Amino acid sequence: MARAGFVGRGVIYLLVGALALRIAFSDEGQRQADRGGAVAELADRPFGNVLLWLLGLALAGMALWRLSEAAFGQAGPDGHKASKRATSGARFLFYCFVSYSVLAYAAGDEGSGSGSSDKHTKDVTAKILDWPGGQWIVAAAGAGVVVAGIWIAVRAIMRKFHKRLRLSEMPRRVRQGVDVLGVVGGTARGVVFGVAGGFAVAAAVRHKPGEAKGMDNTLRSFTETGAGPWLLALIAVGLVAFGLFSWANARWRKV
């Protein structure tokens, strides 16, 4: 189930990266570059509904594997630490939501899996900002996402993923390729998280929920920098690399 889940995660990141590349090269009218856009894109392929069911079930497998880690500990000598089990529990809840949204879309609820991450992010931010102390909650959540993005990128650059892979079973060239995919993909993923968190902090400070951005608008924001579409293209290639790295995890991850 874990290996199927990594395949499913890889499919989503590959599709999001491909959609982001379209946006980078002026294909503005296409779907949003986020999980919803990836699901809708997959649905349009031949046997799309079958592929969606397989994707949803694969992600459900990932959720169940994370639940087993929360209950019995992760692989490795320190896998039974409370912090690691709590992290696995949080990932279980996340993949439950993702799996449900994909399966609901496959079952005919087109407003489920393909919903815009930008609209959802703004709606949730607006509700929280109306709570007592809502600005502090949004700011803290945004800061947490920024820290998570930095943590993801730094761990990728330091190749912390080595300890989770069966490196000795890989041919030398494959190991080198997986190394590049892990560093490039993890860094790009961390950058996207960090920038999205920064927008959430800005929304809290200015009390403007519209400042918060989902993945699609976060990716589009890279085109507004001095590097223009090329920075988005670079990030998009990084997301594709992370998708391929997920597939490598499906083969060589220690589970």
UniProtKB/TrEMBL annotation:
Indicate the segments forming the DUF1206 domain, all copies: 4-72, 89-159, 184-253
Q: Which UniProt keywords apply?
A: Membrane, Transmembrane, Transmembrane helix
Q: Which residue windows are transmembrane per the record?
A: 50-68, 89-108, 136-157, 178-207, 227-248
Keyword Nucleotidyltransferase on entry: no
Please indicate if the UniProt record lists Transmembrane as a keyword: yes
Protein's name in the database: DUF1206 domain-containing protein
Query: What species is given as this protein's source?
Result: Streptomyces alfalfae
